[in-house]
Amino acid sequence: MAWFEHLNISPQCHSIIIDQVQSLALEQKHIIQCGINYGKEAFTLYRRNPDMHMLLFTLKGRGILNTPAKQWDLQPDHVIYVPPGYENGFDINPNENHDLIWDMAWVMLEQQSYWDNKLPHEITYYPTQSGSLLFQTIGCLQQALCLGYPLADQLSANITEQLCLLVANRTSPHSPLALQRLERVFQHAKQQLHHPWQVKDLAALYPCSEPHLHRLCQQYYSQAPMARLTHLRMEHAAGLLTTTSWPIQHISDFCGYPNPTNFSTRFKSWSSFSPRQFRSRFQSES
C-alpha cells in the first residue's frame, strides 16, 4: 500500500491535548505530549516516520492500528505501544462498533535514554487496568494547568509523576482478564450500594448473560452475584458503623436496605452481631 501522512477528524470528535509548551513538568520527564480523544464517526491519523515512543490506551469503542506489516484491533482496557521509526496509522474500527466511537488516551515520549531503557523495541499490545486512571490523570493535569502560579506548577509536577508511573506500569498484573472485568463490575456497584441492583444490571456492566455472570462469580468468588454484592454491602456497613456516628437507619439506606429490620437480619447473619452490638464492640476498640 502507498503510505502517506494524513489526518481526518470528524467534527463530532473532542480532544484534550497537553504538550511541553503548556507544562514544564512534561518537558522535565521527556513527555512530548499527552491527551484524550473522544472519537466519533472519523478519527484517522497516519505517520510515515514518527520519531517518538507512542502509547495508545483504549477506554471505550474500538480502534485499528495499521503498520505496513500488520493490523491490530484496539479493544477497551488494552494498551498498544509503538516504538520510534515504525510507520503507523490509526482509525476508528467499525467492527462490532455500530456507534463508531473510540475513546482513547495517548502519551508521546521522547527518544531519550530515560524512556528508551524502560520500553520494548517492538510493537506490543496488552490488557491494562491503567486506562481509566490515565484518562482521569490527564484530565486532572489539564485542570491543574488552569490554576495560578505556584499551585499549577506544584500540582502539575505531582500529576506528571503519576502519569509516568502509569506508563511504566501500563500492563495488567497476571490475573485473568475475566477476573479484572468482574472486579470492575463490582467496583462500579460499590459506588452505588444504595441502588436496587439485580443480576441483570450487573451482567449488563460486564457485559455478559446472567448465567455467564453466575459462572464467573462462582469460579472467582465461590459466591453467586447477589451474594457477592451482599458481602460488599456488609463490609461497607461495618466500616460506617465503626467510623461514623450515623444512625443505623441511615447506614441501612446507604447500603441498599430501606427496611432496617432486613438490614439487621442480614448484618447479623454476616457478622454474628446486630449492627448496634457491632458498633458497641468494635467502635470502642478503634
Characterise this structure.
It is built from 11 helices and 11 strands. The chain is an alpha+beta fold. The strands form 2 sheets. It has a 6-stranded antiparallel β-sheet. The chain has a 5-stranded antiparallel β-sheet with strand order 1-4-9-6-7, with no helix packed on it. α8 crosses α10. The radius of gyration is 23 Å and the shape is globular.
Can you describe this structure in just a few lines?
With 286 residues, the protein is of the alpha+beta class. Helix content is 42%, strand content 23%.
What is the level-2 CATH architecture name of the largest domain? Answer: Sandwich
In this structure, how is the largest beta sheet organized? 6 strands, antiparallel
Radius of gyration, taken over Cα atoms and rounded to an integer in Å: 23 Å
CATH superfamily placement of the largest domain: Jelly Rolls
Shape: globular
Approximate strand percentage:
15-25%
* Mean pLDDT value: 92
Structural class category: alpha+beta
Number of helices, counting only DSSP H or I runs of 4 residues or more: 11
User: Might you state the CATH topology name of the largest domain?
Assistant: Jelly Rolls
Helix content: 40-55%
Number of strands: 11
CATH class descriptor name of the largest domain:
Mainly Beta
Total domain count = 2
**Strand arrangement, major sheet:** 2-3-10-5-8-11
> N- to C-terminal separation?
68 Å
| Low-confidence regions | none
Order of helices and strands: EEHEEEEEEEEHEHHHHHHHHH
